[in-house]
Write a structure and sequence with these properties.
The structure holds two protein chains of two kinds. Chain A is an all-beta fold. Chain A has strands at residues 4-7, 10-13, 19-25, 31-38, 42-51, 54-57, 64-66, 76-78, 87-94, 105-106, 110-114. Chain B is globular and about 45 Å long. The chains are: A mainly beta, B mainly beta.
């Protein structure tokens, strides 16, 4: 069963706490992405990675961190520096240099709320 | 910067009537354009893309989109809407400022199909 798996589906964060959202893909995709979705604002890019051990900041990286130690995995940590973390977080992946150019495939999302 | 605009917040349509979701774009160079659909509490699903070729692009679930270069538009259409088409629809454009690696998303349009 191929695809992108995000966990957990729901996550609650206490003030001052760091939390980590998991994203795993078995599509053998090179590039992976994290987006934040807020009502009425569409998707905003947090971080992306084109290759293992390399990643770039997106438009709203402050208060977030990522790692890309394995091709299949791209976890996102929401740090205590992110003062407004309540949102729906989406992970996506994409092949590089294929006929399906630029098609990103998405996981089911993690909804993060602050206690 | 490359961008797309989705001017309507919500589109209401009666079941069986034609559905149109509007998108205009602003790019330098040739646009790569995409439509995605999101059902409640789920990730985005790819519907269709325009890269080059015929201006009318056919996609999943009976959707199609028409690329109009003179009007810089890429409207999504379906001849006969179903209640199950009720969802959030996103238009996106390849952001060439970042090479082949990023998409810029619109804010989304909520479609409500009324039985």
């Amino acid at each position: 069963d191929g695809g992108i798996t995000q966990s957990p589906k729901y996550l609650f964060r206490k003030e001052g706490q760091n939390v980590t959202l998991s994203c795993e893909q078995n599509l053998n995709h090179d590039a992976m992405y994290w987006y934040r979705q807020d009502p009425g604002q569409g998707l905003r890019l947090i971080y992306y990675s084109q290759i293992v051990n390399d990643f770039q900041k997106g438009d709203i990286a402050e208060g977030y961190s990522v790692s890309r130690e394995k091709k299949e995995s791209f976890p996102l940590t929401v740090t205590s520096a992110q003062k407004n973390p309540t949102a729906f977080y989406l992970c996506a992946s994409k092949r590089q240099g294929s006929a399906d150019v630029n098609i990103q495939y998405f996981g089911a999302g993690t909804r993060l709320s602050v206690l | 910067a490359q961008s797309v605009a989705q001017p309507e917040d919500q589109v209401n349509v009666a079941e069986g009537n034609p559905l149109t979701v509007k998108c205009t774009y602003s790019v330098s160079g040739n646009p790569y354009l995409f439509w995605y659909v999101q059902y409640p509490n789920r990730g985005l699903q790819f519907l269709l893309k325009y890269i080059t070729g015929d201006n009318l692009v056919k996609g999943s679930y009976g959707f199609e989109a028409e690329f109009n270069k003179s009007q810089t538009s890429f409207h999504l259409k379906k001849p006969s809407a179903l209640v199950s088409d009720s969802a959030l629809y996103f238009c996106a454009v390849r952001d060439i400022a970042w090479g082949n690696n990023r998409l810029a998303f619109g804010k989304g349009n909520q479609v409500v199909v009324i039985p």
